[in-house]
Amino acid sequence: MLRSYWNELKKLKRQKTVRVVAFIGILLPAFCTILCVNNHYRFRNLVGMNVQFGSFLIAPFLFSVLLLTMFSLEEQNGTWKNILTIGISQSTIFLAKIMAAFTFVLLFSGINTVYTMAGGIVLRNYDPDFRKVFTIFLLASLAAAAGTMPVVWLIVLLRKKYLIAMIAANIFVMFNFILVWQLTMFRCLSLPLPILIAYRIIYPISILEYTDNLRAGLDTLYYPAGKGILILTLTAVSSILLGVWTGKRQEG
Known about the structure:
By secondary structure, this protein is mainly α. It is 81% helix and 0% strand. The chain is built from eleven helices and no strands. The chain is globular.
């Protein structure tokens, strides 16, 4: 498993697509930071903005695009069947690719934290706790990625048609983000979708400074954390299993 994981990272390192995606991942946190600094927002506003746009838009985008890139490389180079013939199971390959994609989500959380802390120095109510802010972004990004995991099945299903798969994956991620955006305005509360559950269980830990409005939001968006984690876990596991099954059917 570990060797397969390192191989996937090496493949990604050589791809121009990864550099472009990484640049986008760096650009957005910088934009949010500059926006908050220019408008003299409070530090909590910057953290909240980077949770919403960074963790629930860019992180799922990075995850899905990089995962699709890894699958498309196998199709373009015709190496998928060769890998299977040397004794590596399809499940191992799937998990290695997902772990590699999650690695970039982890790196993005670090970049997001650096920009947030740098911008926060000149904002009001700055909290210089790097570990706390990094934990918020990391948990939010992982929850968002878990809520986006059905995209794994979509990518596997369409992996032989790269452009269509890329469009479909990005539409899926953007649709999820629009739902989250609506949720922040207290809409879509009745929809039990994984991405919305992810935001609802992350929202309480993303608050650095409580106000009356935020307390009202906590009451409205409340979702049992244990139940939410269970649903996200089941979503991730079932998406991976469905992806593996679909891949085997395609090769069968």
